[in-house]
Specification:
Radius of gyration: 17 Å
Shape: globular
CATH architecture: 3-Layer(aba) Sandwich
Largest sheet: 4 strands, parallel
Oligomer: single chain
Number of helices: 8
Length: about 170
């Protein structure tokens, strides 16, 4: 533990940094497994973005295995934010995807990327709703579909373009 604290304290902090902040939403496995999502968090980090996940393994455990009622009530309130766009659970993590997209907008993030596995029906439904949320709330959004044929070069190009777009919108690039 001390070794890691030492490594972290050796990292130079960028003063007055205002990175582009991006939320990742989508099906849980595509969000938490770097091999599946082609290390999206690392790639976005290397582009200077600060990354937030819409759903984590901790969320899943607290939702399905924990008796933490305070967490469950807070989660329900978060899911209720999705009601104007998707009023019920349709399976998978589509409801969470919509709720997290809205929540990221409320938190002032600069954009959202939905990552979904090819052919995932609940996420395809969410994919069709996200452009409406983007238009209504003014939050730039991009969808990336991943499968075993996803090309890393094209994937990286799309991420770079999205980060550049958000940076321009934020006024960091002229």
């Amino acid at each position: 533990m001390a070794r890691y604290k030492e490594k972290i304290s050796a990292i130079e902090e960028k003063k007055n940094s205002d990175p582009v902040r991006i939320g990742l939403v989508g099906e849980i496995y595509t969000l938490i497994e770097p091999y599946v999502n082609l290390n999206v968090e690392k790639k976005l980090g290397s582009l200077g973005a600060e990354v937030y996940r819409g759903i984590t393994l901790t969320d899943w455990i607290k939702t399905h295995l924990s008796m933490d009622m305070r967490y469950k009530r807070a989660r329900r309130r978060a899911l209720d934010k999705a009601k104007p766009y998707l009023g019920l659970c349709i399976g998978g993590h589509a409801w969470e995807t919509i709720a997290a997209t809205i929540e990221f907008c409320e938190k002032g993030l600069d954009g959202v990327i939905q990552i979904l596995p090819f052919g995932c029906m609940p996420e395809i439904v969410a994919e069709s709703i996200i452009p409406t949320i983007s238009r209504d709330l003014g939050l730039p959004a991009m969808t990336v579909t991943v499968d075993e044929l996803t090309g890393e070069a094209g994937y990286m190009t799309r991420l770079e373009a999205f980060v550049d777009l958000l940076s321009q919108k934020k006024g960091k690039i002229s």
